[in-house]
Amino acid sequence: MQFTRNTSSGKSVTGLIVKLGLVLILFIGAIFLLSKIDFPAPKKEIEKIIPNENFKIVK
């Protein structure tokens, strides 16, 4: 009885490319869905006035 070794490097390369393609599609889809979500933002602009007397010039 002879044993045969099944070595097919072509299938593993193709499977790797398919898996990478699926991961890439899922990643791009997640970014697309996150861009559609409207996250809350402050309604008024935050502005703080800093007086000039607090600044010291260091030489």
Structure, explained:
By secondary structure, the chain is mainly alpha-helical. The protein has a domain at 8-38. The protein has one helix spanning 9-36. The longest helix is centred in the middle third of the chain and has 28 residues, at 9-36. The chain starts with 8 loop residues before the first helix and ends in a 23-residue tail after the last helix.
List the helices and strands and how they pair.
Layout: H1 9-36
Short description:
47% of the residues lie in helices and 0% in strands. With 59 residues, the chain is mainly α.
Throw out a few tags for this protein.
59 residues; mainly alpha; 1 helix; 0% strand
Major sheet: none
Query: What's the total number of strands?
Result: 0
β-strand amount:
under 5%
User: Rounded to an integer, what's the Rg over CA atoms?
Assistant: 29 Å
Number of helices: 1
Uncertain spans, ≥5 residues at pLDDT below 50?
none
Overall mean pLDDT stands at 81
Strand-and-helix sequence, N→C?
A: H
For the record, give the distance between the C-alpha atoms at the N and C termini, rounded to a whole number: 90 Å
Molecular shape: elongated
